[in-house]
Amino acid sequence: MDFIYRIRRDYYAGALMVLIGAVAINEARGYQLGTLQKMGPGYFPIMLGSLLMLLGVLIAGTAATGDAEAEALPHAEWRGWAAIVASPILFVLFGKFFGLLPATFACVFVAALGDRDTTLKGAAILSGCVTIFGILLFSYLLKVSMPILKWGF
Q1: pLDDT, tens digit (0-9, with 9 covering 90-100), for 16-36
Q2: Which of 11, 15, 106, 149 could bridge across to 99 with cysteines, CB 3.0–4.6 Å?
Q3: How far apart are CA 47 and CA 3, in angstroms?
Q4: Are 31 and 40 a contacting pair, CB within 8 Å?
């Protein structure tokens, strides 16, 4: 029964890449492929999916040639998982009601707190830098129509 609690990371990583590549190819089947000189909308997803599948097979293959020692399952990092799930939700909510600046800050701040080694000061500094860069990039360079600051429901 001990083998149930053991995994080979490379097998699962390779299988996940193959699965993601297969989903990308399946979703792109309905789009026109085009040619190499005039690519259609389905060309990039099909090529990217094929590359992901190839890399997944190679990664899983290297696991088969490696040593046979399996690794124990790590403990669940619930704090990290909660931060990963909460940060995009906060971005959507804050973006809708308060604008790009608070949405970006909240998203990065909560995501940074998912790491146990991050301090509040470190998360705040990272969030501030990413927020400034994001506003410069998306508001001023790319002209995304999301307001920087707004108030209201």
Answers
A1: 999 999 999 999 988 888 887
A2: 149
A3: 37
A4: yes
